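re: ur question from the group chat, yeah i did fold both. here u go
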Amino acid sequence: MALLITDECINCDVCEPECPNNAISEGEEIYVIDPALCTECIGHYDEPQCQQVCPVDCIPLDPQHVESSEQLQDKYTRITAIPA
């Protein structure tokens, strides 16, 4: 699954620089995660880094974007591929 930032977000700015896939960006009111880029840090780290640094614990799994570990690994491979 991709992750999701809920409306409990306090815009503390700590999650965005931790994302190795640049999936986190400023939204209109709170930070948002692009599910097309979120791999839950698979391929980079053992745990999602945004969840690790979030002081208000507002980054759960996104039930709208269910993906297996294999699908997340495939997404990581596509995102990090060097164009030919």
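okk and heres the other one u asked abt
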Amino acid sequence: MPMIAPSVVAHRGGACVHAENSLMAFEWSAASGFCEVEFDVHLTSDGEPVVFHDLRLHQAAEAEGVIGEKRLADLTATPLRGGGGAIPSLDQVLTRLRDSSIRLRIELKTDVAQKPYEGMQARLIAAIDKHGLRDRCVLSSFSPAALDGLVEQGFSIALWYAREQKPWQPDLNQWLPELKEMGFRDIAVQFKELTAERMAALREAGFNVGVWTVNGPARLDYWMRQPIDFVVSDQPDVAATFRAAQLKSGATT
């Protein structure tokens, strides 16, 4: 039986080309024919979803402080480091992506206390539905609590897993029955932690399996050949080259 070539997921808007999370990066990802784009959402102090990876601003933006303690108007006027404009709101990103065919993997971040943002789900769903994108979204988080109740509202949900970085996450193999009960469809594992045994356990339990964040030609070549469903990368253009070669060879579908 032929192996399905993994989907290529542009991480944080194709960060290898433009400043991460800039509107230009999302436009480039959508125009470049990638399967999916992954990005992160925080909630501002005035209750608005904003697209940014880090909890604190200083490494990726020309500002200091915690992102959840800032107002949206201040953040959307804050330049990103490396160029590409200012920090975008979720509405701005969805406006740029809605007319493309690219699927969206939206990660719900947690606040400074590592708890779900109060009101995040309602504001996120309102933005998604405003743009008619519900059927193109997978909502994800490291924290199952951030996704509680979303399956009942018709969303596909995914868990990001990396116990080496986040030791508070339970052992994955022991956690699988509970995750299945909660309605998770996808499990994305930090690539260093996805062993053959763990992959087999995930497959046996009926989950879609992905890896994040894979960079460099050698690693991308390896992971694009594995029996997994998606590969998240800061170098989606390189990953797409390997995927195209697989499809051309006829070894995959």
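fwiw on the second one: The beta strands are 7-11, 36-43, 49-51, 103-108, 137-141, 156-161, 184-190, 208-212, 230-233. The mean pLDDT is 93. idk if thats what u expected
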